[in-house]
Design goal:
This protein is α/β, with parallel strands linked by helices. 29% of the residues lie in helices and 13% in strands. It has ten helices and ten strands. α1 crosses α2 and α4 packs across α6. The two termini are 29 Å apart. The relative contact order is 0.13.
């Protein structure tokens, strides 16, 4: 749960275009400033005001809103938590300047390059689809990328779109990141067949949904016009999911962060949405992707039953799944519990 207990940053954040290597971090790791937009006009782009489609209490205290958000999404029973989720997203992502007041955000990659390496990993942070943990934190973004970089792997941290953007927008951003990197692979000296994904919590769900529900398909909105990058193959070498939310069965109110509120309120439609995001039902479609899954036996955020159920289902259809069970740990455990195993696996996967 510590992943979500980040200090809220009230000041706006200025986005920078891709810029040169600026400094050296600890142990000589390269530090990059800026980002690379991966879409000129993204699917789901508009000049509509987000607040026109959100249920926000603008007078809420930012810290209390954070606590309310965490409490809201950890529940295996339905409760109308639209206000708590939307208010937190507004205060943390929009008012703080990480995302726009309009639906005109452009997902981007932050590169951590490694000279002489032809492999790459795209890193997806968590945040319960209410925010992204890289907005004000480093644990599921920069820290992971630097570790990969120091171990001879190019890393690209993805800032994808979340609430109030609805499914499948976050997953389409992951697909676009894969296609963008394959399209530009030669520029970075990367083998397009050596591109992998690693995601945390909600980022883990996004990866799981990508490999089992979106990959190989074009699920764009009707008004979207595909470009040259959309013609690229979206195959990946492997997928890693760390303390992932592979269903919403333990986080039923989190549906409000990913779907239309009126649909979530409707009992029959809500049941359909829960089936839609229960990824163990779609493992047949991802059995060709080597997978690495790490989960904690005391995870109060996403529960402790859905991840092993997913692994069992995936293995039952012949998927190659490497499992790391982190005994006695809650949500958001650190690299020391899985990274060595992941790096060893990545050489094979």
């Amino acid at each position: 749960m510590t992943v979500f207990l980040l200090i809220l940053i009230a000041a706006g954040i200025v986005y920078y275009k891709m810029s040169p290597l600026t400094s050296k971090g600890n142990d000589g790791a390269a530090v990059y400033n800026g980002h690379i937009e991966i879409w000129n006009v993204p699917a789901g782009y508009s000049k509509e005001k987000k607040l026109d489609r959100m249920n926000v209490k603008t007078d809420r205290n930012a810290f209390m809103s954070q606590i309310e958000f965490i409490s809201a999404i950890v529940n295996d029973e339905y409760k109308d938590e639209e206000v708590a989720i939307d208010t937190f997203t507004y205060l943390y992502e929009i008012k703080a300047g990480y995302e726009s007041e309009l639906f005109d955000d452009k997902p981007y990659l932050i590169p951590y390059l490694c000279e002489g390496s032809d492999s790459a990993v795209i890193v997806l942070p968590g945040g319960g689809f209410g925010f992204k943990s890289i907005d004000g934190g480093t644990a599921e973004g920069e820290d992971i990328a630097v570790t990969l970089q120091k171990n001879g792997v190019n890393a690209f941290v993805l800032h994808y779109r979340s609430n109030p953007y609805e499914y499948p927008i976050p997953v389409l951003d992951a697909q676009r990141a894969v296609r963008w990197l394959r399209h530009h692979a030669a520029e970075y000296g990367i083998d397009p067949d050596k591109i992998s994904l690693i995601g945390f919590s909600a980022g883990g769900f996004t990866i799981g949904s990508f490999i089992s529900q979106i990959r190989g398909n074009d699920c764009f909105p009707d008004d979207y016009k595909p470009d040259e990058i959309d013609k690229e193959d979206d195959s990946i070498a492997s997928a890693a999911m760390i303390y992932p939310a592979l269903s919403f069965n333990a986080n039923v109110p989190m549906l409000f962060a990913l779907f239309d509120a009126e649909e979530v309120r409707n009992a029959s439609r809500r049941a359909e949405l829960l089936r839609q995001v229960d990824l163990k039902s779609y493992v047949q479609n991802s059995k060709d992707v080597p997978q690495f899954v790490a989960w904690g036996t005391k995870d109060k955020m996403v529960g402790t039953s859905e991840t092993p159920a997913y692994i069992e289902a995936a293995r039952s259809v012949g998927a190659d799944v490497t499992e790391v069970v982190v005994k006695g740990n809650d949500h958001g455990f650190g690299q020391k519990y899985y990274m060595d195993a992941y790096l060893d696996w990545l050489k094979i996967g």
